[in-house]
Amino acid sequence: MRLSDFWRLMDDEFGAGYSRTLATSLVLAEVGGVTAADALGKGVAPKKVWQAVCRIQDVPPERWLGRDVAPRES
């Protein structure tokens, strides 16, 4: 997962404004007891951080992959 995918998933699930607040305030024990933003800054894989956020926020597993995004037209 790319970092851009992480932020797209966060924005889609929590809203553009709240996702940034959540990423800088919610401490995730699963990734070392730091916030999502700190974990990403330390090089933790975005997928691992996203899954930690999903678990602690009780996001249903069927939404962990995000919404379907149509491919771009060439």
TrEMBL record:
Source species, domain of life: Bacteria
UniProt xrefs under InterPro entries: DUF3046 (IPR021408)
Protein name per the record: DUF3046 domain-containing protein
Organism, as annotated: Paeniglutamicibacter psychrophenolicus
